[in-house]
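Here is one chain, start to finish.
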Amino acid sequence: MVYKGACYCKAVQYEIDIASPDEARTSLCHCYNCKRFFGTAFGLTTKIPVKAFSYTSDSTKPTVHEADNGSGSLLHREFCSKCGSGILEYGAAAANDFRYIMTGTLDDPSALPPKGEFFCIHREKWMPEVPGIFHKDRVKD
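Its structure:
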C-alpha cells in the first residue's frame, strides 16, 4: 500500500510504501518537545520502517534541523524551507530503523488512525483520553 504526503505548499513530497497498515503506528505525544514543535497540545506522528519512506523524484530537498531533545539525545527533524511544514523526525536510537512522519502531512491522515498516546502524564487537563487506544504516562511504561 502506498500512502502519499506533502508539506503545505507541496514543494516537499513523499511516499510511504508498506505491505499493511499494521506496519505503521500513529500516536499522539504529549511531551513538551512535541508541543513546542507542533505548536499544539500534542504531536501526532506515524512511525514507519525507514525503508518504507522516500521523497518523490519531483520533491524539493527538505531542510534538516538536529538538536538535543532535552534528555541528551539527538533529535533529527526535516521540514520544508519554503512553508515551514514539518515532514518527519527521528531520534538517534531510531535513525537506522524508523521514521516518524508528521501525520497531518499525509494526503489522507485518516488512513492511519492513532493506536496510542505517549507522555499522558503531560496531557492537557482539558483534553480527554482518546478511547480505544493504548495510553502510557511515559515511553517506557
